[in-house]
Write a structure and sequence with these properties.
The protein is of the alpha+beta class. Helix content is 43%, strand content 30%. The protein has helices at 43-53, 107-142, 155-159, 161-183, 188-198; strands at 15-24, 27-38, 65-79, 82-101, 146-147. Strands 1, 2, 3, 4 and 5 form a five-stranded mixed beta sheet that branches. 28% of the residues are buried.
Length: 200
Amino acid sequence: MKTAAHHWLRACAVLVLATTVDARANGQVVEQVKTYAISGTTAPELYASIGERGPKASVGRAIAHTNFKLTWQRKYEPQGDACTLVAAKPRLIITYTLPKPAGRLPAALQRRWDVFYEGVRRHELVHGEMIKQMVATIEKTTIGLSVPGDSGCKKIRQEITRPLSEASLAQRQQSSDFDRVELGDGGNVHRLILTFVNGQ
């Protein structure tokens, strides 16, 4: 997610909080949460600390970010003079990076923080679902693909780069469109920030 003042995180964080592994018949999905430390005893101080301590983004600093690493185990089989991709097992690691207060907060502030954090976390989970959808699209558009005149299974490796690129570009656009709505005036994240910082 990105705002004019603070871009959402695009860098490594400092602490792993939790990891979930979803082992599927056709691959594996690992989802993990990492945090970076912020400080403050008021909502404005905490938000200012995010702006100061959040890792650098393309412009300004970041609040939260969803990143992923995707690798594949693919099985190609010659079929006559053609080559077919008969199986492709993904290993997907999704990392949600979020801010975490370093110290104990006053009870009232803790309640406000919990609401803010949960809203941000849920936003990032949507990005995670978009990434999973991208992987599903890649599986759908590449498994079973056959390239004639490729008994050595060389041309097909180049051929599958097109659907891979298309799926990646679509995911990036979808993610960008989602952020634009969420962070625009009156958007969910915009309202979360105002409510947290100003108590509105």
